[in-house]
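Z., the sequence and structure:
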Amino acid sequence: MKVGGRDTTTIWCEADGPAVGIIDQTRLPHEFVTRHLRDVAAAAHAIRSMQVRGAPLIGATAAYGIALAMLEDPTDKGLTDAARLLLATRPTAVNLRWAIADMVDLLKPLPAAERVARAYRRAAEICAEDIGINRAIGEHGVAAIAAAWRQKGERGPVEILTHCNAGWLATVDRGTATAPIYRAQELGIPLHVWVDETRPRNQGAALTAWELREQHVPHTVIADNAGGHLMQHGRVDLCLVGTDRTTAAGDVANKIGTYLKALAAHANDVPFYVAVPSPSIDWTIGDGVREIPIEERDPREVTHIVGRLSDGTIGRLQLTPDGTEAANYAFDVTPARLVTGLITERGICAASRAGLSSLFPEVCRASVHEEPVVRRRG
């Protein structure tokens, strides 16, 4: 996608060496800063501190983290230690676990002397596959936007509400929930995006709004609690969100607040779609509400807010009284019954085991709580 008119991805190998480049997303939208990851500890820090975030990008960063680890110690112990370090960074996004397992399965049979080159090559493949998946999600998902446009008699823009950031900043490129939006823009379908601010980290206001501006997509930031009001008054044609983990039965774990948007959409007959790349599907569980671990983050993300002050500096402001406790649940689970459809790289399906099985029969042969039949792509 574009930054200042230039094609940019969220992660890349530096041309002059083994270091891995990333965009430090904690500095957006006020500063565009890139950083170099030179060892596995730096990759783990980038994931944990949310310099990189979004399930697909977390997986890609973990893959490169394993490659960086092989530079330091290509032995079995080095591989095991790196996998353990990276796996502990974020508990909810299943792409992290998938990418680490993919790399370990690939590298473990190889002699130590071959592991560095193969690890870098596989990490690059994972990034390329992610871009391909997102483009395919865009091609399939644009049908939902086009249908909404036809239903309006091709009058006025299609009004889309999204939550958090499932854009290209959450992936290697194109994004998941934004891929159909960008494809609709390319096809000339007029649209406007309502961008939830997404407290407490404000990924919508800070990241989605920033990238939509860079791509010249019309958008408006709204308070998280405004979505239901807009739906009541017919100002939302469809909701389109991403996922950090989707179960085999179609339950969707996404940024906290997604469940409330799905409830409002259901109450107002607004279609609610989820963009789901296949590496974000957890085929081993069926009940997302009971089985998906929900990350609890630093309470200071709730009690404080980071922004640009009147003098132009970036600062952290306290919102709550001294001594007030805060809870910071990072994700919630939207039950499958509230989801209109799952947009995958293979098409749109019902949010159900039968729906997913129709698109991924080779994986769904494995029963819930068993290891998936197919773990690695490519």
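Confidence is low (pLDDT under 50) at residues 367-378. The chain is about 40% helix and 20% strand.

Let me know what you think.
H.
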